[in-house]
């Protein structure tokens, strides 16, 4: 693998970001969806949807290796982690953590006071807990998507 590059996502990346999220959600997150939840989720991560999130000011970073986007993270309002996906073939290499650290730094530099929130799938829950996030509520189901609200406050 060529050296990993973490960079600001561009509008030209939207199709590749959508493909990465869609492919990995189908592979890894089946137990986090009830009924039509997967289809609902997939409709929120189309190329057009990603572009609209960017237009609304969501901050997207991508991890790139071998001229391919292998990871993506998005944050809303510099405080709510919205997406974090790493291609299954690149798991357990620290890429998600590098993406998180990069967007964390950008968010703090942009005025975040040290409080971050997210809605975790069961698949990602242990990762976020290792990073210091704690559950703020019990398992929720909305639009057929199962998630656990979490937060992190850094002094």
Question: Which secondary structure elements does this structure contain, and how are they paired or packed?
Answer:
Layout: E1 5-8, H1 14-28, H2 37-43, H3 47-55, E2 59-65, E3 68-76, E4 80-86, H4 95-109, E5 115-120, H5 125-130, E6 134-135, E7 140-142, E8 145-153
Parallel strand pairs: 4-5
Antiparallel strand pairs: 1-2, 2-3, 3-4, 5-8, 6-8, 7-8
Helix pairs in contact: 1-3
Question: Summary?
Answer:
With 155 residues, the chain is of the alpha+beta class.
Structural write-up:
The chain is of the alpha+beta class and 155 residues long. It has a domain of 108 residues: Gcn5-related N-acetyltransferase (GNAT) (Aminopeptidase). The protein is 34% helix and 30% strand. It is built from five helices and eight strands. Strands 1, 2, 3, 4, 5, 6, 7 and 8 form an eight-stranded mixed beta sheet that branches. Helix 1 crosses helix 3. The model has no long low-confidence stretch (mean pLDDT 95).
